[in-house]
Amino acid sequence: MELKELYQEIILDHGKNPRNKGKCDKFNKDAKAYNPLCGDKVHIYLKLNKEKKVENLSFEGEGCAISLASASILTDIIKGKDFITAKKITNEFLNMIKDKTSVSNDILNEDQKTTIMSLSGVKKFPMRVKCATMVWHTFISALEGKNINE
Amino acid sequence: MELKELYQEIILDHGKNPRNKGKCDKFNKDAKAYNPLCGDKVHIYLKLNKEKKVENLSFEGEGCAISLASASILTDIIKGKDFITAKKITNEFLNMIKDKTSVSNDILNEDQKTTIMSLSGVKKFPMRVKCATMVWHTFISALEGKNINE
Amino acid sequence: MDINFIKSQFPIFKNKINGKPLIYLDNANSSQKPLRVIDRISKFYSKEFSNVGRSVHSLAVTATNRFEETRDLVKKYINAKSREEIIFTKNATEAINLVASTYGERFINKGDEILITELEHHSNYIPWHFIREKKGAVIKFAKCNDRGEVEIDEIKKLITNKTKIIGITHLSNVTGAILPIKKIVDLAKTKNIPVLVDGCQGAPHLKLDMQELGCDFYAFSCHKMYGPTGVGILYAKKKWLDKLPPYQGGGGMIEEVNKDKITFPGSPTKYEAGTLQTAEVVGFSESIRFIEDIGIKNIMKHEKEVMEYGLENLKKNNSVKIIGNPKEKGSIIAFTIKGIHPHDIATILDEDGVAIRAGHHCCQILHDKVGVAATARASLGIYNTKEDMDFLCNAIEKCKKIFEK
Amino acid sequence: MDINFIKSQFPIFKNKINGKPLIYLDNANSSQKPLRVIDRISKFYSKEFSNVGRSVHSLAVTATNRFEETRDLVKKYINAKSREEIIFTKNATEAINLVASTYGERFINKGDEILITELEHHSNYIPWHFIREKKGAVIKFAKCNDRGEVEIDEIKKLITNKTKIIGITHLSNVTGAILPIKKIVDLAKTKNIPVLVDGCQGAPHLKLDMQELGCDFYAFSCHKMYGPTGVGILYAKKKWLDKLPPYQGGGGMIEEVNKDKITFPGSPTKYEAGTLQTAEVVGFSESIRFIEDIGIKNIMKHEKEVMEYGLENLKKNNSVKIIGNPKEKGSIIAFTIKGIHPHDIATILDEDGVAIRAGHHCCQILHDKVGVAATARASLGIYNTKEDMDFLCNAIEKCKKIFEK
Ligand SMILES: Cc1ncc(COP(=O)(O)O)c(C=O)c1O
Ligand SMILES: Cc1ncc(COP(=O)(O)O)c(C=O)c1O
Questions:
Q1: What is the pLDDT of residues D21-40, one digit of tens each?
Q2: Which of the residues A86, C242, D19, D164 could staple to D112 if both were Cys, CB 3.0 to 4.6 A apart?
Q3: Are A127 and D65 in contact (CB < 8 Å)?
Q4: C38-292 CATH choice from 3.40.50.150, 3.90.25.10, 3.40.640.10, 2.60.40.3090
Q5: Over 80: is that where the pLDDT of D165 sits?
Q6: Sheet architecture: strand order including D320-322
Q7: CATH 3.30.365.10, domain D3-27+295-404, yes or no
Q8: The complex's ipTM?
Q9: Ligand 1 pocket check: which of C275, C276, C278, C280 to mutate, most ligand atoms within 8 Å of Cβ?
Q10: B62: closest chain D residue by CA
Q11: Neighbour count for residue A49 (Cβ, 10 Å)
């Protein structure tokens, strides 16, 4: 049953209790996005340190279970990763949603893979794809964007 | 055959050799009209004298056989009639085109009736009705309009 | 009234959605089409098609007649004074843009006020926003009360001698509130302020009588009235159409064209530029006949019954919150469920073949006011039944189950 | 290519006109529709209908996909760079109004020049006239020569440093002249002047390649391409769509809406306000497929053959005068007959089932120049044959007989 694939327990858990919500300490980059169709909003805050590591990462947002879970999972998994790895994981995620069936990134442990893959259920719900992907695009905008203090 | 009813000899004759073309002498009223669909134009000139008689009447115009014939026939028949009679005949004509089959006005002689009725062929050609009626409406505008010198 | 028979006229219901029968509750968005409307369009293309109003050949004559007959039908259906008061547009949105743009250009100046309401659909706000920007005008929003209505006193309070036009919805597409248009028009008349009514939701569900309403403009969309997409209608009092400038320019809407000067004909021609939505307009004639065959009063009565039954059941569910509670309510139910986002509700309901809409329904101002970004909305049509409401309620129970895990 | 087989796909030809088979020669006005287009619309309404882009239920997903697939098809068909460059409008007229209004508002000021031609359809003149009036701009008309063409040198002569835009037809709907768009665009580019092409007659008869043409805007109508009424298309380079303000305001074209501020999304969303012509757009996908199945080159070749055959025969008739004699000519023949008004010609031809158009074909400027108020026009489509041309010539003989009495 497809609904069960969409609303897996991991998703519901992250959706109900999103990790890393709020403005994180000393963020130096941010980006936001809005889905005019449904009203979903997301705002990413991140601290990229001198070693180009995502030292801190959080989000504020409103939205459906999928979008909140996706934001929660993203922040959870990316936090602590360096710039290049963070981009790699994001690409893996977006590719998975687009056409592949799983993530192959060897930077992730099995647990993280399972978590990320739990979002692949949206593939069967085209109108919901953006719910899952918007925060990842927003994260990249923030990551590649200007430093706030510059 | 309906085409024959539309293009009766009287019509073709009036269409080819329209009577009363040009600006008539000492006209004191005029009115013009334009059919944007086909480009037909008509301009009525008339002299209404103190006794409220249409002393002189003519037209300028461009258009199809039907519209020229209608203008020609109108000017031919109305010239010399008084205000009230002219309006009566016009109404008779417009009613004939709209729903009746003949004109019943007793001011017209048999010949004039036949001439006017020759235009009734347009009834079977809805897109051509305006070709026949436009000049009559224009005539009424001129007749009821202001004196040019006022 | 045999709803099963009526429903059987809509081919869409022969299809299964995710293996389930379709329970279509997205009618405020767009309604489904009865076979006679679909067939009319096919027949028109197959037997009668030609561009209208331009050629003199037989096909063009027939097509033009069919097209103009629809104008007569609409005139009669909404009780307009003359056929010239009926203008075919692309949709209701274009109809409102037409008025905002032409009226705004001619009559709205710096500092003038446009009075709309917090209930308005974006289509009855953004066009005025453009005029606000162009002319330096002010938009005032009449507040909607806790019941989701706009009261006549609120309008009264906001009218000033700078108010140049009032734009107001007939029936809110979120709260379902039916607004006191006649009273507002009567009030506006004493101050010589024209009233534009957004009739998108009024037209499919209420009896339309322009003489009784008395409004200056009434805009609605055919696709919400069991009709084809691609056609909207603007009713406008003749006195305005005579006064206002043309909107779009092009073929078919001119009188005489020179290199330095152009003259325009009267309405409706002046406002119908380019090739029109011939087949769609002709198809719409069957929608009107469909509605007339059932009778709009019967439609109202049936929809009200079903809605009240549904509302009652929904209210029993403690997690469900209904948006608005207007005294006079059309068959539109917007709601939220505690802890479940409307998007998730819509997806889960869809799995059971229940089609509702989730989002802000183009009413962000209202949603901001209510304090939510989105709501779920079930909106009824003539083919909906109490059974459909049971389906809806059951599907909502399922949502809760999934999320309570 | 089997024209009989192609013609058999158009149900309209099964009908008799005044007891005679239909010889449809009014294609420049609007073309007939093949069964697959008609059926696609019916199927869409019967099985897939929903409003697009707004709801998340299954029907809405399907409808949205079908709708957006058409955008992709169009993009590919005209070789645009991206799908965002394809905007669905009501008709070509609206597409040109959209450009004139938004570009005019932003970039045209007092004294600026708009360069169009004497061949233009009213739809590519009146919208600019409105800007002339609003902004105090000037419209210059590139002259058409005796052959009924506009030459590149004429354009060159008229360009000044005040020229802000060039609006020009791809293929004249009266003389049939195919204009040297690529050369004009290349010239305009050296002066940084954008070019809008009125592609109404180009689209059904010529291969469309936006990268090759290089124009900034290209407007055309689906109903002239064997497609449904109610849809036009504006192709516009992305850089313009990014720069230009929105056109009509309403549901679906917003980003964020507040009481004092509104933000807009990118193209095409920004330009598609309100409920779109869902069924018509989806239906149009079958028109493109129909054209692609035959191949536009084959269509061009066939139409050219038939036209040349017809032209030759018409020229034998001393009373017939053909309007224009362009070197490159699309399948449109406008003519007059000595002593017989075009309106009368059209009526008499119709009696024999031959449907042509009489009038100024929305080109009054050109007709003034030629010195006639009206012409008769036979315009071809893929289903026309040499036999049809014979019918036309015979019917013209009949006209003469009636009038020679
Ligand atoms: C050259 C040309 N431009 C513009 C138009 C207007 O197209 P539409 O009426 O579909 O908007 C037409 C057809 O009527 C045309 O032939
Ligand atoms: C109240 C209201 N106004 C305006 C509109 C816009 O109608 P359309 O999209 O048909 O132009 C709608 C429907 O979407 C509506 O419900």
A1: 999 999 999 999 999 999 99
A2: D164
A3: no
A4: 3.40.640.10
A5: yes
A6: D320-322, D332-337, D375-379, D357-359
A7: no
A8: 0.94
A9: C275
A10: D373
A11: 12
